[in-house]
Structure formats: C-alpha cells, structure tokens
Design goal:
4 copies of one chain form a homotetramer. By secondary structure, chain A is mostly helical. Chain A has helices spanning about 15-30, 40-45, 50-55, 60-90, 90-105, 105-120, 125-140, 145-165, 175-185. The first copy, chain A, has a domain at about 65-185: Tetracycline Repressor, domain 2. In chain A, about 35% of the residues are buried. At the A-B interface, helix 6, helix 8 and helix 9 of A face helix 6, helix 7, helix 8 and helix 9 of B. Chain C binds a DNA duplex through helix 3.
Chain lengths: ~190, ~190, ~190, ~190
DNA sequence: TATGAATGAGTCTTCATTCAT
DNA sequence: GATGAATGAAGACTCATTCAT
C-alpha cells in the first residue's frame, strides 16, 4: 500500500493551502466587498484555522493585494476569451453583446470587479484591475475599428455594464448596438 | 423675556444639530469612504459630543442611510444645476463637458457617489442614487436629443466620468465630443 | 437619605478611575517589569474591565509613559524627604545611610526604578527617571559638600544601592561611610 | 570513502550549530533586549531554520538561560583582560579609565549586561552575572589597594558605568580620577 | 535527525452601543 | 433631554511550541 495515498486530506500542501486561501479571499471579497473582509471570514471560507491566514500572508492588506492580483490575472484571461471569441466570430456586434451579457450575468464577480475598480480611487494598490479595463479593452477593440472609436466603445461598454450590474437588469443589447453603429459610421469630427 | 436669548451659542436646536451631524457624516463619508466611518469621526467633524450621534440616530447604519439620502438629494439638486446651465447655454457640447469636468474635479465627492452607486448592487437601500443617474440624466439629456441617443450619452458619460474619477486623470473632453457627434449624427439603426 | 451615599462603589468617577489604572500600572510594573506589562494584567490589578485601560489611554506605551511619570513624580517627592530629613539631621552620615537603607528595603519599588533606569537606555521616554538620580541627587548632596564630591557620592550611592537591590543584601553602611570620608577629606586633585 | 566528505558545507555539526544559535541569541539579546527576543529573530540571525532553535533548546526561556550563561562566561573572560592589562600597565589610573571607557562604548552589550544585572533581582538564575561584578571586580582591584578601597572603587565604577550607559554620555574619567584619589589617600576611618 | 508548516492562545487596539448621571 | 463614561465583542497580528514529514 502506498504511503502517499490520497486520503481524506492532502496534508502538508503549503502551495495548495496558499492558493486555497487566495481563492477564499476572492470569494469573500466578491460576497461582502473589500470593506468588510476579515481574516475570520476568509479562514472560515477556506476551512483553515485563523492563524493560517496570517501565517501565509503577513497582513490582511497583503492578502487582499494578492487576491486582487488574482482577480486581475483572471480578468486578463477572461479578456483573452473575448479576443479569441471575437476573432472566431462572424458577427462582431452580436458576439460583443453576448460577451458583455455573459460578464454581467456572473453578477457577484462583476460587482466585485466594479468595487475594486472604484476602490482603486482611494487605494493605489487596487489600480491594476482598473488599468486592465482602461487600457486593454480599447486595445482589444482596436482590432476592429479606429482607436478613437475603440476607446469610446470601451467607455460606453463600461458604463453600460456598470449600469446592468448595479441595477440587476439584463445587459442593454440595443443600447450597445446603437452605440456601436454610432461610433463606426460617423465621420470623425475635426474639433 | 424671550426664551431664546442669544447667549454664547444658540443652544437647544435639535433640528440644527441633527442636520449638522448628517452634514458631517456626508463629509466624512466622502473623505474616508463608507468602510471607515465611525461615530467618533463624525462627532469630531460635527463638533458635537460623541453621545449626540447615537442620541439622534439609533445606529451608525441608520445614520449612514440618512446621510446617503442626503447625498441623493444633493445629487438631485446638483442635476438641477445641469438642467439650468444647459438651458441657458449657447454651446451644449461645451457646457456638458464643463459640467462633467466640474463633477469629476470634486474628486472625493465623486468617489463617494460611485462607491454608493456600486454598493447599491449589494444593498437595496442605496439604489436611489443609482437611479438618479440611471433615470434622471437620460431624461435631462432627452431635451436635446431623441431618447435613444440620450440614454446612450448618459451611459457614455457615466463610463467616462467613472474612468476619470478612478484614474485621477482629467475628464476626457474629446472623447465626449466624439461620442456626442456620433450619437447625434447617425441615422438610427433599424435593428 | 442622601442620594450620593458612598455606597459600595463610587460610580462614575473618571478621574479616580484614571488614577486607579495608573496606580495599578505602577504596581504591575514593579512586579513583572517593564517587559511584561500587559493591558490584561493592569486591568485585573485595577479591577476594571479590559476596555477601560484603552479607553483612558490610547496605547499601552502611553499608559506606561504616564505611569513612569508617576514614578518620577513619586521619586521627586521621595527625594524631597531626603532633603528635609538631611536638613533636620544632626548626623549627616547616619541619616544618609538610613535613607539609602530605607530606599533599598522597599525592594520591588527599588527594582522597578532600576529597571526603568536601565530600560531608559533603549527607550527614550523612560529617561526622566534616570535624570532625577543623575541630576537631582548630586544637587541635593551639593548642599553639604563641593559639587565634585557630591557627584562622586551620588554615583557611589547609586552603585551601592544597585548592588543591594540586585543582591538582596542589606545596604552596605560601612561602604558608604568609607566613601563619604574619602570624598570629604581628600584635597581635590588638580588634574 | 570518507563519511565526512567536504561537500558544499560542513554538514552535520550539531555542536557547531548549537553554538551558532547561542551566539546569535546573545547578539539578538544585546540588540533588542530580553523582552523582545523571539525564535524567529534568533533563527534569522544564526542563519538556521526556525525548527533548529527549538530542536536544540526545549524552550525559548531555556535558550535565553544558556545565552545568559554565555554572557557570564564572556564577562569573566572580559575581566581577565582587565586583569592582564592592568598588570602590564605603568599607569593604573589611566588604564582603568580606558578599560571602563571601552566597556561603555560597546553600548548595546553593556546595556544587555546591566539589564541582566537588574533582572537578576527578579530571577534567581540571572544572578551569576551580577556576582561577577559584585565579587570579581573587587578581587581584581584588590591587587592594587586594600580591600575596602577596592570594594568602594568597584561600587563607584559600577555606578559610573551605569550612568554612562543609560545616559549615552561618555564615561566620566575625571569622576573616576577623583574617586580613585579619594579612596587611596584617605586615612581609613575608625568607625 | 531536522525542518518548516501549523495553530491557538494571547497581544494591542478600535468602536458601536449602552446607560448612569 | 444630553452626554461622555463604560464595556465587551471583534479586529489584526505575533509567536512559542508542536509535530508531520
């Protein structure tokens, strides 16, 4: 009989534990918001003793930072699916709406991201997530239109998803269509 | 002999005190964010004894709720200035940009409003503020364009101001111009 | 029957409580040393709830500082008794030995003072006590001899009391006599 | 083939490791004081894994005890240098002042020794260090003067070095000269 | 034998809320 | 009515010690 049989618990798995705590933090963040995360909530969610959270991360702030990094990284991966789905798509407009819709439907996740987005205004360290949306979405859309339109569309999308998320209403596909048409057909103003 | 002799201070002014506390709460909220408001901060800011804050409001949460109502009401008044300034204006585009710019420049206030906006996603009671932006801004803009464009512009504005607020960068006037031109000149799609 | 009858507890006596906490801190300091004081020990000794200690003093460090100030002030008063007893005395030598002896006999208090004295080497705030012995004892002795002898005697006394305190042996009266004679009779070296 | 192949590091040297830990403990003690020593600080300083500190010493208290023994032993050696330097010296007074001065200048070490000295008043086991100063210094000085003067000088030296250490001021050479002259020239009192 | 992951007791501190005055 | 003293629950964090590996 092997010694290292996968028994009930894989014991002594520091890396796994670390990740478990980070994942729990992301979940708790999504549920209660940045403002109300506590070691206790995280420990309970991760099913680890209270001391473990501070053993792996020197401070709560640091743990939150790491968790936010995780969110950022997930967001980047998420945006990569946007990229590839748009690439494969035959109907840009519909696919984009689908993607935004899907994003909004994972509501607690979306709330978390907007919370972090706004919280970044007070807390420097949270900025990376904001930057993803501010910079990478326009870049992504830039493959399909000029940069000015891409930026405008990104801003519009952001506003529209924020509205959907906060109101709980479904994503406004028609609004997106309208904006998209507007941005694409207009002769660029001289200004 | 009058009761309300003007002594050193106009004492016994419960209503005034109540309002003072609410105003202080709004200020503190704007400065430190919802997460970090305390009775002590409020009392210090309002220059009232600690006990007064709990005397006038049963719980901190209740006080915050009232303060948020106040923010909503101030926002409504604020939008009224948008209405009147746009009415008086000879250059809609410029005036609108001025207004958005000015809004964004009162940064801590703007952060607070977006915080509340996003928090509304978790907490029913905070929704009224979100509703102001979601419903009243389109209505206001609807005086100058068709409702579809007004809604789109409102959404765009929201996204654009959010970006300015979180990034700390100045409001993107050219982006607004572009969106405005786009929304106004495009033949509405059939869809 | 009077309302304010001194019942079991004199309630709501903030100043009294403050002093009770300070006194308890001095006691605990004397018993366990600066290194091991905790809020809990102090609260238990003062018979007040844990929260009271932090309510009256923002930090433990601050509380210790105040307690040390109290020790300093007591030391100063204590030295005043030295002054007056020496003034009244017909036998300077004997009286001085009596005083030193008495000081040493209140052992835990004396230990505390030497502890603070030494701790001052690491912690700026504790210096005032050290200064009392460094400056005021020489000044006091200076009434009876030239300043050089007074300083030397003060240093000797300090060393001698330290030895008595740490060894638990009685104060070495004969050693003091010897030092005193030595310092007083010698023609001052030019050097 | 030899067992103890000189690989990267001379491994498996339990005694060496033990001593490394003790030495590190003495260093850390000198730096942060008895109150703030931790296993972690010691392990880091000794560049050994955390577990090693508890592997070689059952408890932290025990490790500190051993380290204090080490300090005592070092002090004894240190005094041996006093002995030999005084023996070789042509100018007793100057040499003694040099020695005291040098002692005081290694300030963190001196603070540690006085800390232990005073702590001995509370903790029996720390007494050996106190005894070194209390007994051995007078014995050492006794080679140059009668025992009464030697004892008095030892006490004076102790007080003077304590003052220098706690105040951070340089050692008072003139004070020592004065005391020395006084103790040596005075006709011994009858008493 | 040796290690570093693990944890729970205990530290200081903050604060909403209560309530005697 | 008004206040500020009071307190206990909860927060973040530290660390000696244990023990699986």
């Amino acid at each position: 009989m092997e010694k290292n049989t996968p028994s009930k618990k894989a014991k002594r798995d520091p890396e796994g534990r670390r990740e478990k705590i980070i994942a729990a933090t992301v979940e708790v963040l999504a549920e209660v918001g940045v403002a109300k995360v506590t070691h206790r909530l995280i420990a309970a969610r991760a099913q680890v003793p209270l001391g473990a959270t501070t053993y792996y991360f020197p401070t709560l702030q640091e743990l939150i930072r790491v968790a936010v990094d995780e969110v950022v990284s997930q967001s980047r991966q998420y945006l990569a699916t946007w990229t590839s789905e748009l690439e494969r798509s035959l109907d840009f407009r519909k696919t984009l709406a689908d993607l935004a819709d899907r994003y909004v439907q994972d509501r607690s996740r979306a709330i978390l991201e907007y919370e972090i987005y706004v919280a970044a205004a007070r807390t420097e360290e949270l900025d990376p997530l904001a930057r993803v949306w501010r910079d990478e979405v326009p870049a992504l859309l830039g493959r399909y239109m000029d940069s000015r339109a891409a930026k405008a569309l990104s801003v519009f999308l952001n506003g529209s998803m924020l509205e959907a998320v906060t109101s709980g209403l479904p994503f406004d596909r028609q609004g997106l269509d309208f904006a998209l048409e507007s941005f694409l057909n207009l002769p660029v103003p001289n200004n």
